[in-house]
């Protein structure tokens, strides 16, 4: 199961302070759905405010990314530009 780390403190308001958890998912889209099911509101927060790092590679739009059983996923704040 992919291992997820909520590296951003804003995620913790949804997870009751949990920082790390395992998620049964084979894609980022499914991972977000599962996280939202477990922690209502977290999925939308991820969609709007987070970038996702999968096995050390940062994705600004990771919906189509696949996850392996041993993937390590970090939820990190998006960097705005302008």
Structural class: alpha+beta
Helix/strand order, N-terminal first? EHEHHEEE
The largest sheet is: 5 strands, mixed
What is the residue-mean pLDDT, rounded to a whole number?
91
Number of helices: 3
Query: Could you name the CATH class?
Result: Alpha Beta
Coarse shape:
globular
DSSP E strands, number: 5
CATH topology: Ubiquitin-like (UB roll)
Number of domains: 1
- End-to-end separation in angstroms reads 37 Å
Task: Give start-end ranges of low-pLDDT stretches.
Answer: none
Instruction: Indicate the percent of residues in helices.
Output: 25-40%
State the CATH architecture: Roll
Radius of gyration, Cα only, in angstroms?
11 Å
Structural commentary:
The protein is an alpha+beta fold and 82 residues long. The protein has one domain (3-77): Ubiquitin-like (UB roll), CATH 3.10.20.30. Helix content is 28%, strand content 26%. It is built from 3 helices and 5 strands, in the order E-H-E-H-H-E-E-E. It has helices at residues 12-15, 28-38, 42-49; strands spanning 3-6, 20-22, 50-54, 57-59, 72-77. It has a 5-stranded mixed beta sheet with strand order 2-1-5-3-4. A hairpin with a 2-residue loop joins strand 3 (50-54) and strand 4. Helix 2 (28-38) crosses helix 3 (42-49). The radius of gyration is 11 Å and the shape is globular. The termini are far apart.
